[in-house]
Amino acid sequence: MNTNPIFIVGNVHSGTTLLRRILGAHATVYEVGGETQLFHYLPLHRRCYPNLEDEKTLRAYITYVAKVGKTHYGFVHNWPQDKPAPLAEFSLDESQIDGMMIEAKGITNHGEVIKVVMDYIARSAGKDRWMDKTPGHLLCIDQIIKDIPEAQFVELVRDPRDILSSKRSRSSAEWMQRRLKIVPNIQKYIRFQTGYDPVWDSLTWKSAIRIGTQAQQKHQGQVMRVRYEDLVTEPEQVVTAVCGFLDLPFSAEMLDVGWTNNTTQIHSKKGSGIGTSAIGKGM
Hints:
The chain is α/β, with parallel strands linked by helices. The chain contains 13 helices and seven strands. The strands form two sheets. A five-stranded parallel β-sheet has the order 2-3-1-4-5, sandwiched between helices. It has a two-stranded antiparallel sheet with strand order 6-7.
């Protein structure tokens, strides 16, 4: 039984959500419902929870990680800061936090605590391993492997012209404008994350490709690169290869995912989630 954590990384708008839904359909994989950003903000965690030898601090950090792991980063941080959400909002209770505390006892490394908490959540859900889809964790591969040596990564890459087209559509999408009005305290964050600048975004894509290539060379056997175009054109062949890399038995049911488009925020639980309609839109 392979229990290695799975990380889906890559440039934004590269199909990472689609792959998350495909792998998340596997019976042995616990799928976090959104981006966790846990390793992206690890330096901030160390400042906010500096001494994990202190039981109170460790419990607070475990509780935070568990909340993110049961939902996602946005859900936790969009909650009013002056009114902390009860554990029940995250399908958690104090007995589960107690169990995580027991397993994390003596661990003072924040990254290792993340693994303990996520392992616990996956087991509690009846799964063998967990999967995190945070595109920006592409920048954190070295740190993640330092803390979780057995971690495996699938990097998504996509034609930069189609990424630019997707970002342009998202930056002006009606749902995004509504969100800015509803959650004003994160306006700057959202504008930064969704802003469209063809020059900057092109340079970001180029940098991501370089970082991914270096990670493949440095951590051979732990990082697999997948082209979005190949995934949607030959899904069974590509997903079978990804499953082989991750030591997951392939199942045809994995391909029966609902359609999702994070640019328009339109989702469906029915099949037909894999298609080629998004190829070539930027040409």
